[in-house]
Amino acid sequence: MAAGGLAVAALAVARAGRRQRSYRGWQWWVVALALGGLGLFMAPWAAGNLWGAATVQALLLSWAPFLLLGLRHFHARLGLPGSERADWMVLASAIVASFWLPGPAILGVHLYVATLMWSARTPEDAGVLRLTGAVIALAALPPSLAPWADNNAPVIVQAMGAGLALLVAAFGTLTMMNERTERELRDSRRRLRILANTDSLTSVPNRRRFHELATRVLRDPGDSPPVLLVFDIDHFKLLNDKLGHPAGDRALRLVGRCMQDALRANDLAGRLGGDEFALLLDGASLQQAIGVAERIVRQLQTQSPEHRLPVLTLSFGLVLVLPDESVDDAMRRADQALYEAKRQGRSRAVSAQGDEERPVFSESQRLGLTPL
Q1: How far is CA 87 from CA 42, 70, 78, 333, 372, in A?
Q2: What is the pLDDT of residues 191-205, one digit of tens each?
Q3: How far is 29 from 14, CA to CA, in rounded Å?
Q4: Could you tell me if residue 371 is inside a domain?
Q5: Does the annotation count 335 as an active-site position?
Q6: Which residue among 23, 238, 303, 358 is least enclosed by CB atoms within 10 Å?
Q7: Across 173-184, average pLDDT
Q8: Which domain holds residue 292?
Q9: What beta strand segments (E) does the chain contain?
Q10: Whether 142 and 7 share a structural domain
Q11: CB count in 10 Å sphere of residue 92
Q12: For position 41, which CATH number holds?
């Protein structure tokens, strides 16, 4: 019955490994379970037979090192002490020694594997590895302490300890594979969320994510209303036409980096599309928002030559978000202010007050150098 259970466990590990082809080491675990199961199956007929007992003993000595070999491949970055070559040497030495000193041979190979499992420094599977290592060490005690008559190992005693340890090992290997699958699925979902919410070129939130985050802020604006800024790169199409799209991509990445460097932790930034960006500054006045725009432009113009770009300029439209105003309504008013900044000559910031039908624009404020 124990041998049949181990055969089922070996098939389960093999199936799990084949379904997750990126995993390494599971083949060694299948071999370990198969060797142990074969040893258990042969044990009742091997007692009293010198060569049969030796064969069973070799099988029951081999499964623990094979389990360790699988662990070295499965956790390739774990940095376990020793090496595969050392594992093979320990196994070969134990099999040879088991003909004369079966008890010490069994105890030595099991303690070797258990010690290495306990020394594993991995936060993910540390509990499983230590439990498996402890059971492997305990499984060596009954046969190593049993009386040995004429060096004929009592294989039944050895098989009983190995059977329990192998079942725990099978559970441990399946647990490690399942937990790794869950971790990879969580990481995949996290990466997909990041890709869905982040502009891949500039590494700032995309339009949809910015709209979602800004809506949350406007639901509870705090003591003072936030300021929304919409801006773009002056003459961006001319930059693309003269220097090519790679230069345009460098300009967009640089703007995204300068924008993020100028913001506080509770401010929001986003790329609306093309060369148009947006900022939502919580708890800031219009004058403070213009100061943020000046810092972005100053850093942008300082770093432009380092990125093989001409000195870039930006035009800003600013609005103080009205009570109960939606993100879309505030953005339309900010767009009107941005168009006014373009009309007045670019490289400047213009704020808009009033509603969308009757906007009142402030006097523009120059930002940085003269535009291209």
Answers
A1: 25, 11, 16, 72, 69
A2: 777 777 889 899 899
A3: 8
A4: no
A5: no
A6: 358
A7: 85
A8: 207-366
A9: 227-233, 268-273, 276-281, 314-320, 348-353, 360-361, 365-366
A10: yes
A11: 11
A12: 1.20.1070
